[in-house]
Amino acid sequence: MTTPEPVDGARGPRDDRSTAQRGAVRARRADLLDRLCDLFLTEGFAHFTLGDLAARLHCSKSTLYTLADSKEQLAVRVVGHYFKRATDYVEHCGVAGIDDVAARMRTYLDAASEALRPASRQFIDDVAAHSATRATYEANARAAAERLRGFIDEGVERGAFRPVHAAFVAEVISRTVSGIQRGEVGANTGLTDAEAFAELAQFLLGGLCVEPGQPAGTTEEQ
Fold first, then answer.
1. Which residue pairs from 135-144 have beta carbons closer than 8 angstroms and sit at least 24 positions apart in sequence?
2. Domains of the chain
3. What's the pLDDT tens digit per position in 12-69?
4. What is the SS3 assignment for 170-188?
């Protein structure tokens, strides 16, 4: 009796088990990242050792090493995970479905404010104090500013916003967002990061929006 040749594309029980195991491993890692993220947001991370983190999360250090090779690399990964989670939250708050560009910009800024709300001052300070996590933070700020510049360009083109130099406004936004995220705005004003984003939204839209009956004017090349 000969063993039948496997059919191309056919899956056996062993393949199914391997796929299920890989899915379970990914799910456990995702859960661990979420729990680390929540802990870091609440308490910061600079003062923790890997042993501390393992004890708090009721796992082994070897489990943490499946996420990163060192505490520093783990911090970078968790901070990156937080910003990805925050970006996903902002983009899924209905921004894309809003036709009115001012309302879309307001929704985007409100969502960004809400996404920052869980971040404690200790977390913000720890991120700012370490070059690798700070770089992640600043890249996020630049991406947010570029997104806002797109709203401004569209608003000016539609006549909903006053004619402004979008690159200049984007630069002001970028520096303000970076200042918020580094804790400088909060230290100088007493505002939380979420409150500072809300004030930024009010300031931007109050200065950009064209009043009813007011001509928008024309723009120079941006």
1. 136/76, 136/79, 136/80, 136/83, 137/79, 137/83, 137/181, 137/182, 138/178, 138/181, 140/83, 140/86, 140/87, 140/181, 141/174, 141/177, 141/178, 141/181, 142/174, 143/87, 144/112, 144/173, 144/174, 144/177
2. 15-208 (1.10.357.10)
3. 666 666 676 677 778 888 999 999 999 999 999 999 999 999 999 999 999 999 999 9
4. HHHHHHHHHHHHHCHHHHH
**Is the Cβ–Cβ distance between 145 and 168 less than 8 Å?**
no
Residue 21 structure tokens: 């195991």
Single-letter residue type at 137: Y
Asked if residue 114 lies in contact with residue 105, where contact means CB atoms within 8 angstroms, the answer is no
Phi-psi category of residue 94: left, alpha or beta, with phi > 0 → left and psi -120 to 50 → alpha: left
Three-state DSSP at 161 gives strand
Euclidean distance between CA atoms 205 and 213, whole angstroms: 17
β-sheet bridge partners, residue 209: 161
